[in-house]
Amino acid sequence: MATLQHVCSAPLARAMRSGAAAIVASPTVRSSLPHSAESRVLLGLAEPELRQLAIDFGQQSYRGKQLHDLLYKTKAKEIQDFSHLPQAFRDELREAGWRVGRSPVHRAVTAADGTIKMLIKLEDNRLIETVGIPVEDDKGSFRLTACVSSQVGCPLRCSFCATGKGGYSRNLQPHEIVGQVLAIEEIFKHRVTNVVFMGMGEPMLNLKSVLEAHRCLNKDVKIGQRMMTISTVGVPNTIKILAAHKLQSTLAVSLHAPNQKLRETIVPSAKSYPLDALMADCMDYFLQTGRRVSFEYTLLAGINDGSEHAVALAEMLHRCGHGYHVNLIPYNPIEGSEYRRPYKKAVMAFATALESRRITVTVRKTRGLDASAACGQLRNDFQKTPLMESPSSSSI
């Protein structure tokens, strides 16, 4: 699947201590509606919750079904756009502090290949990136992939990643994740067929919101679980929690190295999660879910792209069982980085070395190079602190 480079970035232990990891064991439909003013967001609520909300306001239950259709089919952005609802009900919702929860697009950049990267402006004036990646195959079938962010920035600071260089601010709420997909559908005027949690942030450090957004995208936006991928660089204990949910979505693990020593130089958080422990958790994930794990491997010229690295990677994967798949990602250059993109010949030699050792390989086609495609690049051009209010901000 064509996506952008995975994000990561700073010592994992520090991120865990700072409270960045909001993890739950069961993100099922909430048993009661949120009541605090700051959480009164409609986007992300399931139909049973919306029906209960309507009843709480003295309306008949079917008004909740109408709310659901307005949010996920009509995709209305504001309560005043709920033309199918009585004006009195709309007024009561607004007066009670309810809002849709859609965030405006601050800027959009279109690459020559049709990829569109957007900066989305959140309520606290922070910016996040989301990317729409259109692909049409030889048979004329069209696929639109949404690459969504799960955090504002990232606390893990992988050495090659632009997102980590921009700093970390906070986790995203479920509606802020779902809204990215709806923004892509709006700008492309086409439904999103695939979702990858590979944008800004480490999804496993915001697993509660990621799982709630995943539920909404599946049940409400109607994107199949098998069409979604959750990516991680590896956070201790979280793969086990994710496995317990037995999702039909793909788990993508960012390796970037075939041994612990090299991986620590590329992914600093690997010091807190040894490669052997990570691979053991991946094996357990496959046994519990029946879903093969996909491994992301960013090729850095002269660092991890040699034939000896390919051989070591294949040997490690064979020691850990079967059913694995490797996505090779030629490095997407970012300003100020010491890393270089490998030549195509080196990329193909690496892929051939894996295939000759019976490892399934895909070389990811880099998309949006002329639109600051690497995660975090476009945001870093515009923001490292919250935006000041400005009438020049554009929205769709």
TrEMBL record:
**Is Transferase a UniProt keyword of this protein?**
yes
Give the enzyme's EC designation: 2.1.1.192
The organism's superkingdom is given as Eukaryota
Keywords of the record: Methyltransferase, Transferase
Return the broad EC class: transferase
Name recorded for this polypeptide:
23S rRNA (Adenine2503-C2)-methyltransferase protein
Q: Which organism is it from?
A: Dioscorea alata (Purple yam)
Taxonomy of origin reads:
Eukaryota, Viridiplantae, Streptophyta, Embryophyta, Tracheophyta
